[in-house]
Design a protein that fits this description.
The structure is a homotetramer. By secondary structure, chain A is α+β, with helices and mostly antiparallel strands. The first copy, chain A, has eight helices and eight strands. Chain A has helices at 5-20, 78-87, 100-107, 117-120, 135-139, 142-157, 181-204, 213-223; strands at residues 29-35, 40-43, 59-62, 67-69, 93-97, 129-130, 166-169, 174-178. Chain A has an eight-stranded mixed beta sheet with strand order 4-3-2-1-5-8-7-6, with helices on both faces. In chain A, helix 2 (78-87) runs parallel beside helix 6 and helix 3 (100-107) packs across helix 7. Chain A is globular, with a radius of gyration of 17 Å.
Chain lengths: 232, 232, 232, 232
């Protein structure tokens, strides 16, 4: 058993959740799990179908995006993961998918408005959508720049990545993260559900108002913060 | 076998129906089953995933919301269940979910219009949507007040909870109930289906008229009332 | 083995297809299979869940709607089936469901326009929607009158029930039929698919034109008529 | 083992993917696999249900549409396959389905706009929709003419069938192709997903802009071309 076996295992199990939760078609998604002490993360290899994936296929990469161990090429989105791990020290799991409803909002270049308590149970703001990058960033080190696009959008909006664990990259698709890979996958599924309900809400009532502050505060604090009383 | 075993079993089985009927994502739902003679109900513990849930995990709570038996913390929505059981003496099962279409109508703060016989087979009015609560109620004993928000909305509309076994809480999500936990789960699935068909009906014909009185009366009486002839 | 065993078996198998094809929630559907020589049909009993249904539960009813054999009460829609069998001599299977998209069109009181070849592979006209009945018909022998509402709508439109094997009953839901119960179930699934695609087509292009005559004729004749060349 | 066994096997396996990927209802789809050296392709027989299909049922047809081997009648769309194989020498797999969202766009007679990177990962242009054919072509050798309708639309738009591996035939449904039958099936699933997300994108933002050139170029080149770095 190698020293990276625990994050290979964690990344593998989290990756295998994506098809079960209907968040991916074919290979259009990837999950990574970080070992903060060793400064590395395990990530899905590029283009390998989920039904052929094994624990040993996971690739170990450091926070500068350099492959440390593994026979396969890591996910093409690896540099984005590396940038986020390097700058956001409290996360140890990242997920990227092209899940249907979240991707539709990203393609529409629109934030997802906070319409209900399902949303507020997880974050207190609209789900942000970063603008597409400038052309030089795209034609340069694209996936690396995608990481900075995310970091900068959070900085511009004054958002804390520990409180808002998801973003849409405009014209592209969602990224989510969390303290573990499992939590990051959970966030991807929540995002997809909230994205679907927000679209339906607008279809029922184009003037649907956002959730009011008292409800946002109450629901978020039920699940998070010092006085939370959700769960065991 | 304890004296609460029958309602623990009933609550467990009813809770396990929610994922099978696609009414919940993760732990976003809960069912309770009441024993009227003993003045208690069994309810899902808070935040426990459905695939880990056991009969013994069910928590026994009285109609004032005080836990009577159980090692785990009951659902965060327990006080809402308690209020409803205390005031509506003919119900012995309650369900809360964030099912996709019903929640979208709740987020849109809109009643679900009675458009067809599927709806009229179960109730003769629009499915009511209660307004979000005032800020003091929210920041106070929120789940307890949610119960009164439901009771008061029924009182304001002059609805009988024995005839209309479902409500949307504005910006939040649906609650349903019934003579048993199984019936309450059935009502949640009916509500979700009716909510989806009502949205589609409006998309096909924004001026779709409501069902006329004669059809409402006929379909409801086929399944309910003294001359019903549906079922065995 | 009784003399009705073959239609009990046929009706049972056809009924069991409804949940597999996602055409019913709970017991909201029923299929019958007729024996023309004996002048009877086998139909699902009322309100029995699909996972409890057995071949022996099927009820034998004649074309006047009188129960001939069976311990259970037949479907509440039995009189509608009887009327259709009595007047349309070339059909031996009937299905009623509340399938989501077809029911939404029925609730919208709208014919389903013929937008594409999937539709034209099965019929050459819009899928007709009969108006809701007059109040006296509803409060009278409702299910019996529903049969005549269907017969009369076909007469009014000059449609041949051998060519158009489906209808929407306004504010209610679809009925389909065919030479066998299996074919009637097939028609219910086709209707649901066509109903969904027609709604989506309008959402993409509110001015979408109907299929032109040459394509309607070609596709229908590929599958039907003297020069058909589809299938074996 | 006959000399066509390898393409019969390939066509069989590819056909069986269609129901697994939710791309067909009943028999509304077909896949073929070509052997370029022998100038033939194996194709699904007409109207045979997927759960009854066997490898030996596959029919061998040459590029002029003449059946070379097989007991069953080939798919009614066989002539379309033959025309495409004859004129597009670099493809060895073709798929035709009536998948829900792609067919809705075809019925709406609308190209699918390139709204995001999921689309650009696979092609750099809108997904083209060919107009319905003239009446004489329809009433003549319809399926043969459908092949030319596709060829001519690509010629008119200056598209390369090696880069754009999918088309919508107006009022009808999609065709996709590729170097193998498996790749053609993959393209059908991608098309369906892109078609659904494009509709949702427009519903969220009717003025959603198309993807900008730099992103189109980048994403396509990540997966294709000399500097691709996706996959193993």
């Amino acid at each position: 058993m190698g020293i990276y076996q625990h994050i290979k295992q964690e990344a593998y199990l989290a990756n295998m959740q994506l098809p079960k939760l209907n968040l991916v078609l074919f290979t259009f998604g990837n999950v990574s799990a970080a070992d903060r002490d060793r400064g590395v993360f395990a990530i899905k290899p590029s283009g390998v179908p989920y039904d052929k994936l094994t624990v040993e296929d996971m690739v170990i990469v450091d926070f500068d995006g350099i492959t440390v161990e593994g026979k396969l090429r890591p996910s093409s989105d690896t540099q984005t993961h590396a940038v986020l791990y390097k700058h956001w020290e409290d996360i140890s799991g990242i997920v990227h998918t092209h899940s249907t409803y979240a991707t539709a909002w990203a393609q529409a270049q629109s934030d997802i408005p906070i319409f209900g308590t399902t949303h507020a149970d997880h974050l207190t703001t609209d789900i942000p959508c970063a603008a597409p990058m400038g052309d030089e960033m795209i034609s340069g080190n694209y996936e690396y720049e995608t990481g900075f696009q995310i970091l900068n959008h959070f900085k511009d909006l004054g958002l804390d990545y520990r409180e808002v664990e998801m973003i849409l990259v405009g014209n592209h698709a969602p990224f989510t993260w969390g303290k573990t890979a499992e939590k990051a996958v959970y966030n991807s599924a929540v995002l997809e559900s909230v994205a679907q309900m927000a679209l339906l809400t607008r279809q029922i009532n184009p003037q649907a108002p956002k959730l009011k502050d008292a409800l946002i505060k109450k629901h978020f604090e039920r699940k998070h913060g010092p006085d939370s009383y959700y769960g065991q």
